[in-house]
Amino acid sequence: MVAKRYGFLRALVVVFRVLAWVVGIGCALGFVGTLIAVAVTRSAEPAIFSVILPIYSVLGFVYFYAAAEFILVVLDAEENTRRTADYLAYLAQTGASLPQPPAV
Fold first, then answer.
1. What residues does each domain of the chain span?
2. How far, in Å, are 21, 25, 80, 86 from residue 1 at the CA level?
3. Which of 52, 67, 69, 89 is the most buried (most CB within 10 A)?
4. Vertex 54, ends 45 and 73: CA angle to 5°?
5. What does the pLDDT look like over 26-35, one tens digit per residue?
6. How confident is the model at residue 2, as a pLDDT?
7. DSSP states along the chain
């Protein structure tokens, strides 16, 4: 098993995922609040926010969640590269050859 590295980035993934849900839920609650304000005041000003807020909500959620997933992809690529380098170093030390693919 390869040791996990870059603990700060793994913690940042958790922070970004939490922020994604906080932004998504917060904007959804704000959207409900603006709909209530439109119904109560019958003003056009909250109606503009009720159109814009869901767009920002989705974009904010997607941005933070995608940032977290991108960090995980980069960390997985680094881990796979390190694992491959360790395996190739092991093969070089033992003098073994790479396994042959099955014949077709």
1. 7-91
2. 32, 38, 11, 11
3. 67
4. 150
5. 888 888 888 8
6. 65
7. -PPP--HHHHHHHHHHHHHHHHHHHHHHHHHHHHHHHHHHH--HHHHHHHHHHHHHHHHHHHHHHHHHHHHHHHHHHHHHHHHHHHHHHHHHHHT--PPPPPP-
Q: What does the alpha-carbon distance between residue 16 and residue 53 come to, in Å, rounded to a whole number?
A: 20
Q: Quick one: which of 67, 76, 73 has its CA closest to 17?
A: 67
Buried b (16+ CB within 10 A) or exposed e, 22-50: ebbeebeebbeebeebbeeeeeeebeebb
- Of residues 76, 60, 71, 77, the one with CA closest to residue 25: 60
Helix axes 44-94, 7-41, angle to 10 degrees: 160
